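Dear Dr. K.,

Following up on our conversation at the group meeting, I've run the structure prediction for Probable nicotinate-nucleotide adenylyltransferase from Bradyrhizobium denitrificans. I'm pasting the input sequence below exactly as I used it, so you can double-check it against your construct before we proceed with anything downstream. Let me know if the numbering doesn't match what you have in your notebook.
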Amino acid sequence: MRLAIRQALPPHSDGMRIGLLGGSFNPPHQAHRAISLFALKRLQLDRVWWLVTPGNPLKDNGGLHALAERAAAARKVAADPRIEISCLESVIGTRYTADTIDYLRRRASRLRFVWIMGADNLAQFHRWQKWQHIAAQVPMAVVDRPPRSFRALNAPAARALARYRLPEADAGRLADRAAPAWVYLTGLKLSLSSTGLRNPDGSWKSI
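The predicted structure tokens came back this morning:
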């Protein structure tokens, strides 16, 4: 198990600023890459780790491709040494973000993590298990995904966390802030989604 965990945790060193982008990656696509490059620049991160989940508890996983297949495809799409692919959640036996973040904060306490998600996820963040705990454990960056902006910023979680929102101009300092703290990043205009890249039978279109 220890060997597997070492392999699941990408290379890192103390003090690194790491963005965490979780998802099914079924399939991975260029929007995942664009969001990661955008976050690297705007948040002044050293790396972004794609956490390929065994299965999203809020989604129907019937058409989910094998974890190894999704991870291999993610490495191909990422195509940047600053973007690392990890199947950590499968190794430690969880599908919940709260458990993953707790584990990373224990195992890699000297790293500065930022949780990255799209505005579509902020809109349903209040449905995530222990979402208040997540917000209290790690700073968060939300990437705007028009036309979901209004719905996301008026969702229960966004309203509850409104007093902890930082000005977008302070995004580069988010990794240094104690949680709860979050920023809403605008300027990236992409409409790709994994749902739109799947055929009715669950197979992937060209990625």
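Two things stood out to me. The first helix runs from residue 2 to 8. Residues 26 and 195 are 8 Å apart (CA to CA).

Best regards,
J.T.
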